[in-house]
Design goal:
68% helix, 18 helices, two-stranded antiparallel sheet, mainly alpha, elongated, two-stranded antiparallel ribbon
Amino acid sequence: MDTIASLFAFITTPVSWIIVQFHKLYGAIFGPDTGWAWGLSIVSLVVVIRICLIPLFVKQIKSTRGMQALQPKMKAIQERYKNDKQRQSEEMMKLYKETGTNPLSSCLPILAQSPFFFALYHVLSEIASGDKIGVLNDSLVKSAREAHIFGAPIAAKFMDDPGKVTALNASLTDVRIVTAVMIIMMSLSQFFTQRQLMQKNVDLTVKTPYMQQQKMLMYIFPVIFAVMGINFPVGVLVYWLTTNVWTMGQQMYVINQNPTPGSKAQDQYLQRLLKSVTSHGEVRGRRRRSVVQAIVAKGPDRNENERRFIGALAKAGFSAQADGSVAKVDPAVAEAQSAAAARRQQPKRQPKAKRQAATGTPQGPAKTSLEKKADEPKQEGGAAGGSARQAKSGQRKGQQRPKHPSSKK
């Protein structure tokens, strides 16, 4: 870890400078040598970094939703070219290019945070050694070494030996209790973040391997954080716990305000929107009007949540307009219009030729009436002529029972 952190030594000066500036502010309130001053400085560093990463977070959301929408097409490509990996890769890249989707966009916030994370780790390691780093001079390094968060120095680790902890004026028991609690909180926050994403903000109508992968990550990531956390200093644990809480709150806001189409969160959002419309008789807020406008513009491509929303509006006596507003109409008329629109959304019956092509049934050219007659099996012994005579004489058609030899003709 120290070797990796040294690779990001170029960014330790900006990171240490930001921490020092916040330390001046909090030091004036809580005291320069307190854990509150240094701990809140690290928390503020996280807030600054995450605010700068908001555009990347928005791009991550768009990329994740785009990947979810592409899963059926990706699965079809994998099945079609399962024996040709090169062609499979080419078709995948072509699909990404046509849709403007980048699979790596979902990892951008984590990748962008990595330099700051390792730079902070490098700064805290130097503080534990008593060495100057970045803009931290001897007096600031000494102040940081004496800062304790609930009895644990910010530069101490769970795996530190008793001698190193004693040098930081702390007990090994306090350090391990504090670090263990923070590791558990860090893992639980990561688990809850992934869990709310899987349960609320995933299109449940599309069952793809992507959902299974995300479900596995929900259990794998907390274990990874727990294993790695025992080698993190207390200050780094504060940093990572803060960024997890920020991610959880940011994601919760997005799920509530801009849910994925077809997800459980969208259903809950449209229910809240319906309640607001029926209470006030109008769509309040520009963002809500844009949501209604997008639903109206979809027409027959609406998902089940959106169809229920339009139907519930009709029962309440409202009709959604193209500009995102609603108009008061007769409930019976609005419900009839909604039912007619639902019928139009039903898939049309395909012609016989297309159905046979879809099922793989071979179909030849259409036969004429003469060809159909020629294909009919001929009856033995002039059955055709006999059947004609039987029809004329009023006898029943079909095979006749032979007469007994003693019977009269």
